[in-house]
Design brief:
By secondary structure, the protein is mainly β. Helices cover 12% and strands 29% of the residues. It has helices at 2-22, 52-58, 89-92; strands at 32-35, 48-49, 64-67, 98-101, 109-111, 119-121, 130-132, 135-137, 140-141, 147-149, 156-158, 161-163, 166-167, 179-182, 188-190, 193-195, 198-199, 206-209, 214-216, 219-221, 224-225, 231-234, 241-243, 246-248, 251-252, 264-267, 272-274. It has a ten-stranded parallel sheet. Strand 3 (64-67), helix 3 and strand 4 (98-101) form a beta-alpha-beta unit. The radius of gyration is 22 Å and the shape is globular.
Amino acid sequence: MKTKKLTTILGLIFSAFIFLGAFQDTGTNGNILYVDNTGSSCNGNSPCYPTIQDAIDAAEDGDTVLVYGVPNKPYKGARNKNLDFNQLISTKGKIDITVESVNGAEDTIIDCENGGRGFIFQSGETNASVLDGFTIRNGALLNGGGIYFRYNSSPTILNCIIEKNKATGSGSTGNGGGIYCKDNSSPVIEYNAISDNSAGSRGGGIHCEYSSPQISNNTISGNKAIQGAGISVFGATASPIISYNTISGNHFEDSAVLSNGGGIWCGSSTTTILSNKI
């Protein structure tokens, strides 16, 4: 009789573990891929890739790419800049993935070496595409020196340091030194530090053109442009939400005739500006 009762109790415990396991949150819906340029071979984790784009190209929809970093060894070179979540869309279809640093933004640095940008999103990525915890610096292109969104691309950008990037053009180009949004893109841009970027025209920190990003809880400081040194918004279909940011120490170039908007400049748009410190 005692043996039968013990067997029944053990059976119930085993069933409970199975039940709980079925509802356990594993933190990711897909596989995990690793990137390491520190010499530690991804701490023994695999698969381990030498460049960020190599891991992105190997990822499938729902996967997570974890990137190791140390501050004195930034990621550089062709496969560590101009990074595209959907570079292989023609062969594998569109994917939404997470690319996240293991050690945080201060230790995981992408140095564009004043040629190219950190990331480009141009394949209709959704908010399920996540970039989390990188420093992106020394990008330099006509538009979008740090990160560029276009063609209805709307990923999520979190916990990044976007600094010392340049939009080198002028006139109709030279927009978005740190971040450039266009073509009805609606990224979520939250909890980032966007500083010391510059633009030859609009948006030293962020420029939104016919796009509606959600820009919240960021620190946007020390950026420069002709119009909208911190943030600029333009276009009749643009309706961004700019909320709970600290926007300070941004400077428009006062030598230009059209100079205005040190903190935020909005033209021909419907913009919600709520509870910022400017």
